[in-house]
Amino acid sequence: MDANKNHAVCLWMSALAVSVGATGMVVSFGFLASVSFEEITAGMSGFVAGAILIGSGLVALALLSRQVTSAHTDDSGNRATMPSK
Questions:
Q1: Does 15 map to a domain?
Q2: How many domains is the chain partitioned into structurally?
Q3: Upper half-sphere CA count for residue 17 (Cβ side, 13 Å)
Q4: Would you tell me which of 9, 23, 74, 84 could form a disulfide with 80, CB atoms 3.0–4.6 Å apart?
Q5: Over the stretch 29-77, which tens digit does the pLDDT of each residue have?
Q6: What contacts 24+ positions apart, CB below 8 Å, involve 37-44?
Q7: What are the start-end ranges of the H helices in 1-85?
Q8: How far does CA 50 lie from the centroid of its chain?
């Protein structure tokens, strides 16, 4: 696989993590409205898992959206040297 295809797959997977996490959080609200302690615990677990998926997906999307810059070159195509401070 080349780098562009890997980048696209990673973008797609992180967007999928966000959407699955949001869906899981919505589904867990049904369990949180229950009177049974076990179902409330299951709802809390699903809500936390959904929040973790959303957070990790958003971090991945943020990191993947950054532009990758190549080495600086001058007009002739040679690598330009950075001035030292």
A1: yes
A2: 1
A3: 18
A4: 74
A5: 888 888 999 999 999 999 999 999 999 999 999 988 876 555 555 556 5
A6: none
A7: 3-32, 37-64
A8: 12
Confidence (pTM): 0.70
- Measured CA to CA, the distance from residue 18 to residue 10 in angstroms comes to 12
Residue 32 CB contacts under 8 Å (≥ 6 apart), including other chains: 40, 43, 44, 47
Q: What type of residue is 28? A: S
How is residue 48 written in tokens?
């936390």
Residue 76, C-beta contacts closer than 8 angstroms, at least 6 positions apart: none
Interatomic CA distance for residues 34 and 11, integer angstroms:
36
Q: What is the residue range of 55's domain?
A: 8-64
